Amino acid sequence: MVGVGRRMNKLKQLLSIRHGPGAAILPSGITRIHMEFSFPYKTTSGHYGPRKFWRRCLPRLKYWNPSIPMIVNHTKDESTPATLRIYFRQGSTAAAPSEPSPSDPSSARGKHQHVPQTLQLRSSTTGESPAPAPEADERVVTLDVKGQDTQRILEDLLERTGAVPVVPTAAEELEMQEVAERRERAKVDREVMRKHLEQQKREEALMAQARSEAAALKDAL
């Protein structure tokens, strides 16, 4: 039987990727998403928000839309723009999101049109995957995300695409509450243990000092 602690850790990881900022179902007319920003970055360069969005939101967006390619291109030049490009199938609108079961993101796979292999670029950490030109049957909406915080980037993406945020089920809400309560208990336990160890170290230091003073007194006699 899997230990309770291990089970809760796995549950925490699953809930973390399934729900939170970025958990949304994209319309079936979206063919791919391309994001470009500088990495590493300086906090004053305007690339911090895009990087945070990539770390925190994009994994959830990909989880719920597994069939849509999402390419990230890291550059080294902090003076370059930070962009988020959304590729739409020509004639599609942002008001027709697919609606897979909230508990099964894989059901979204069949809702999106097949993306040709030529469009499935790989992400790059060396600036080798710049945004491609749209195909003949595509149009592109480009968001300037430089200097934008994560929440603003997410709001713009949802507004431009008409994506539907994923709402946790009642059972998932209970699981999330259980995970949160367990996290708080663990925090209290860690604090108790920290104080115990500090007290133990102080007592050991006092004992060592007492032994040292006793030895010095003995030598002086």
TrEMBL record:
| Pfam families on file | L51_S25_CI-B8
Q: Which residues form a coiled coil?
A: 171-220
Domain of life according to the entry = Eukaryota
> Is Translocase a UniProt keyword of this protein?
no
What Gene Ontology molecular function terms does this protein carry?
structural constituent of ribosome
| Residue ranges of domain Ribosomal protein/NADH dehydrogenase in the record | 43-164
Per its UniProt record, what InterPro entries does this chain match? Answer: Ribosomal_mL43/mS25/NADH_DH, Ribosomal_mS25/mL61, Thioredoxin-like_sf
Where in this protein does the record put region Disordered? 91-137
Which keywords are on file for this protein?
A: Coiled coil, Mitochondrion, Ribonucleoprotein, Ribosomal protein
Enumerate composition-biased segments (Polar residues): 115-128
Localization of this protein: Mitochondrion
> What cellular-component terms does GO give this entry?
mitochondrion; ribonucleoprotein complex; ribosome
Entry-linked PANTHER family:
MITOCHONDRIAL RIBOSOMAL PROTEIN S25, SMALL RIBOSOMAL SUBUNIT PROTEIN MS25
In Swiss-Prot or TrEMBL terms, this protein is called Ribosomal protein/NADH dehydrogenase domain-containing protein
Q: Look up and give the organism this protein is from.
A: Pleurostoma richardsiae
